[in-house]
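User: Just a sanity check before I run the rest of the batch. Below are the structure tokens for the first item. I only need the designed sequence back.
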């Protein structure tokens, strides 16, 4: 079932987004995936992808059809990890603080807990499994080719998307929205997707090294020509170089390594004794994270375990979404009741912060501040969203899932007893939705910005003045896309892979002429 909402597309759910490389049911079938500690000291490839995340996997799969590709992933494999494969283990995985956890926790300067993924597949291997396309308006704004974007979305959807079963808790949420007059602009289109992976790569052309942490990129004057990375033993002896005399020659990376490699504010880089390759003061600026607020609803009857199945972008607010999640197990372990949860997320948002280095260790979390609700419009949307949630909870449709003797104030008090964040809780939070939004803000891990198109990279995702380098990452977006950006991040990997291959063919043709 495909739903169009204000130009965005919503699939009611998606299959666990294992890395989009090649189809296989077993990790052992991935002969091109190996541990970095067992790799040669020096290797040469046409393309080097730094990060095997949500963008990196479809990008590498696409590039493998025209060149040799190396993917360097600092995390491990999702295969054989029950915390990733099983839906019931979604929340415990986010709370795993071990050094090998696929979820590396960090706390922003706002006092909000957040996650950096550390696993092959990135956020697509560790997410709430809902899939939505970006709006046609955004596609026009960033200058993407609509036809190629649609084809790239379809390529992704054939690999990962499917129609889930909408259970009673989700259907009650939907009915409650309709009862209180929240009517999405929507049309439905039924279709069937395979839940299995198609043959989307050339295994002989792609190589993936796990637990390979890139320390820095190598530059000869301006062109980037290779990287240095360390393995799981901490041995920094591995080097990967671009092949010489190739018409391709590209290093594709995520944003985090730009500063460590010498691209950022010259003042900031010199403060960390980093050699300045390019003075790019906008690197790390304009960071944004979508605020999320939740409400628990203690239920007199069991609530099935589920992730995000129902999500609407709702008129008249246009810019906030509501999601229902059946259980957050890490909360349930701290209370004696078994509640369901309703979430709201502010689309956009307008509030911005920045990212900066704490040190030059790529494994360490940087300094990040998002300035949640700094812009009054974001706060207004949160208040309106919470009003809608309260109306839904008080609806007749929801009556079977809540105790009538518990007013909304009691639900808020229940929430305040939980360690949602590290922010101060004010005395008036129970009676002020404005203060409630500010004090109980959380993240849905849809942060973006910091390497925006037009400020850091051009429309071809190149860093101006730096040859052989592109940045293809969700941090290039200036706002979140759809109700979940995962679909567009994967689409971008496919889309840019095709563009890079096409550009390589053009360069090769010009050299011959």
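Assistant: Here's the designed sequence for the first item:
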């Amino acid at each position: 079932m495909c739903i169009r909402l204000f130009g965005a597309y919503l699939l009611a759910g998606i299959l666990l987004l294992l890395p989009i490389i090649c189809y296989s049911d077993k990790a052992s079938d991935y002969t091109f995936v190996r541990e970095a500690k067992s790799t040669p000291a020096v290797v040469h490839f046409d393309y080097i992808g730094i990060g095997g995340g949500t963008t990196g996997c479809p990008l590498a799969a696409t590039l493998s059809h025209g060149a040799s590709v190396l993917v360097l992933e600092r995390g491990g494999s999702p295969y054989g990890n029950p915390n990733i494969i099983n839906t019931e283990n979604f929340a415990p995985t986010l709370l795993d603080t071990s050094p090998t956890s696929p979820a590396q926790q960090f706390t922003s300067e706002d006092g909000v807990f957040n996650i950096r993924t550390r696993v092959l597949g990135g956020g697509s291997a560790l997410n709430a499994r809902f899939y939505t396309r970006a709006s046609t308006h955004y596609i026009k704004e960033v200058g993407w080719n609509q036809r190629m974007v649609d084809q790239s979305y379809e390529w992704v959807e054939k690999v990962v998307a499917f129609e889930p079963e909408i259970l009673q808790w989700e259907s009650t949420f939907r009915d409650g929205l309709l009862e209180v007059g929240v009517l999405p602009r929507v049309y439905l289109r039924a279709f069937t997707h395979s839940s299995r992976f198609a043959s989307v790569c050339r295994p002989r052309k792609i190589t993936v090294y796990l637990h390979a942490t890139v320390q820095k990129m190598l530059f000869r004057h301006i062109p980037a020509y290779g990287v240095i990375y360390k393995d799981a033993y901490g041995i920094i002896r591995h080097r990967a170089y671009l092949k010489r005399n190739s018409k391709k020659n590209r290093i594709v990376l995520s944003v985090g390594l730009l500063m460590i490699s010498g691209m950022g504010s010259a003042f900031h880089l010199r403060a960390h004794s980093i050699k300045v390759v390019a003075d790019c003061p906008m690197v790390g600026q304009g960071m944004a994270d979508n605020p999320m607020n939740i409400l628990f609803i203690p239920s007199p009857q069991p609530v099935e375990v589920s992730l995000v199945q129902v999500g609407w972008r709702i008129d008249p607010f246009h810019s906030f979404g509501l999601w229902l999640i059946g259980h957050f197990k890490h909360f349930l372990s701290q209370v004696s009741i078994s509640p369901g949860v309703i979430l709201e997320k502010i689309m956009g948002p307008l509030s911005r912060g920045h990212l900066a280095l704490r040190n030059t260790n790529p494994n360490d979390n940087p300094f990040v501040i998002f300035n949640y609700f700094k812009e009054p419009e974001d706060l207004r949307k949160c208040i309106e969203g919470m009003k809608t949630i309260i109306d839904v909870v008080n609806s007749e449709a929801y009556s079977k899932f809540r105790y009538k003797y518990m007013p909304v104030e009691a639900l808020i008090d229940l929430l305040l007893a939980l360690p949602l964040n590290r922010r101060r809780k004010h005395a008036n939070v129970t009676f002020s939705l404005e203060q409630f939004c500010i004090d109980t803000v959380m993240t849905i891990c849809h942060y973006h910005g910091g390497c925006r198109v037009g400020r850091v990279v051009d429309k071809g995702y190149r860093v101006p003045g730096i040859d052989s380098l592109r940045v293809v990452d969700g941090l290039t977006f200036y706002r979140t896309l759809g109700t979940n950006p995962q679909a567009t991040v994967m689409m971008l990997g496919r889309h840019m892979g095709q563009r890079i291959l096409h550009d390589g063919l053009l360069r090769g043709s010009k050299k011959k002429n």
